[in-house]
Amino acid sequence: MQLPPSAGDLPALDPADLPAKVIDAVTSRGGDPDHPVSGYFYDLAAAVERARGLKAALPPWAEVYYAVKANSYAPVLHALVGHVDGFEVASAREAELAASIRPGVKMVASGPGKSLPLLTALVRTGVGTINVESRLELHRVNAAAMAAGRRAAVAIRVNPQHVELGGSLRMGGTASQFGLPEAAVPDAIALARSLPAVDLVGFHIHAVCNNLDAEAHARYVRWCLDWSARTAHTHAMDLRVVDVGGGIGVPFGTEDPFDLHRFGALLAELRPPDGVRVLFEPGRYLVTECGYYAAEVTDVKASGGTIFAVVRGGINHFQIPTSWDLLHRFAIVPIGSWPHSYPRPGAEDVSLTVVGELCTPEDTLARDMKVTRVRAGDVVVFPLAGSYGYEFAMPEFLGHPPATRSLI
Ligand SMILES: Cc1ncc(COP(=O)(O)O)c(C=O)c1O
Q1: Backbone phi and psi for residue 216, each to the nearest 5 degrees, phi listed first
Q2: DSSP states along 111-164
Q3: pTM for the predicted model, two decimal places
Q4: CA-to-CA distance for 294 and 46, rounded, in angstroms?
């Protein structure tokens, strides 16, 4: 874990640029001394709009499975269920949640080190395709499916030798715990075929997160399709699924956004082999914009030349800026009331560092961002907090109240 990069006096966002419903939600809750604002606000319409836009841009052969790990708040899944083709799940809890949203919903499961209890739960909850990440997992899926008296559809997750994609995290094209190296795939195919309860349907490749380059992403999808078709042909395999993973990014700073229309146009030139389903598993792209993390300033203090705003929350609620080394901009929403008889600390025209309430200097959400005014009782609002926010934090450390979650 590192501190987020210094903003170098980049100005904070203007609260006037936040949607009116965010401001209303924050200001109507602010100023209550018994319940400091501390949690996430979600605009479901924004998630639905992203899903609609993605589906409209992709060719008809592309199926979209929302990666539940990005945000597993049930209302988000309810909002998306009619606008995506299914859900990508990684745990028994995610699978049960997805299944509860709409009975019979299509699911695909991924994740390294799947245990026998997990695979048993995935088979039981009706996950359509299980992406296996090792030979041992193949044996375990076989055992779980045999015990359930059925066959399980399985795709082999491949870690390609080379991946020409940028992005914030790499899961493929490098040594990693994910999937099987390309060179190990032939043996895995042979093993899968020898297992009576395994129905080998294809391949899964999820190599990168937060890629903003649409042309490179289209080349990657082309590579996934070509490689899968070639490998299936070489091994006389009946290819039915190519899962190209997630990884479409969202700009957190001044980068250009992912060019969805260009991506769609490039994909429209591809022709997946007949009878092959092509699955996309976007998480961040669908839900980042729908979420706002809002935390009330509990104190403002100066130390060693730095002005700190301490908030009710921090990395116990919102860890992405620290763990991803992100320059995540925020706005300060002023709250008029200060219902106390003692003075209200504050600062004007300063470079502000926003920290949380945990007993570690790592609990830092933003550094050196220029603000015109900050006072105890105001609320710091981070947009672009709908993905890997609530789920990706460390809520138990120190035992402060968890982040709230509400809809706007
Ligand atoms: C297997 C798999 N699929 C999909 C995703 C979603 O990725 P993203 O949110 O970058 O689209 C992830 C994220 O780590 C993943 O591990």
Answers
A1: -65, -35
A2: -SS--HHHHHHHHHTT-SEEEE-SHHHHHHHHHHHHHTTS-EEEEEEEE-S---
A3: 0.96
A4: 18
Question: What pLDDT digit, counting tens, does each position of 322-336 carry?
Answer: 877 778 999 999 999
User: Which atom of ligand 1 is closest in space to residue 387's alpha carbon?
Assistant: 9
- To test ligand 1's pocket by mutation, which of 114, 209, 212, 260 has the most ligand atoms within 8 angstroms of CB? 209
For the CA of 388, the closest atom of ligand 1 is 9
Mutate to test the pocket of ligand 1, among 63, 68, 69, 210 (most ligand atoms within 8 A of CB): 69
pLDDT digits (tens, 9 = 90+) for 84-94: 999 999 999 99
- List the one residue out of 246, 156, 244, 253 whose CA is nearest residue 195: 156
pLDDT at 234: 98
Residue with tokens 């979600």: 42
Contacts of 299 (CB under 8 A, 6+ apart): 308, 309, 310, 345, 376
Q: Name, in order, each residue with C-beta under 8 angstroms of 47's C-beta and a sequence gap of 6 or more.
A: 76, 79, 80, 286, 287, 289, 290, 386
Is the CB of 282 within 6 Å of ligand 1? yes
CATH 3.40.50.300 holds for 15-43+288-407: no
Is the CB of residue 88 below 6 angstroms from any atom belonging to ligand 1?
Answer: yes
- Residue ranges covered by each domain of the chain: 15-43+288-407, 44-287
What is the fold, at CATH topology level, of the domain defined by 44-287? TIM Barrel (3.20.20)
- Going from the Cα of 288 to the center of ligand 1, the distance in angstroms, rounded, reads 13
Is the CB–ligand 1 distance for residue 206 below 6 Å? Answer: yes
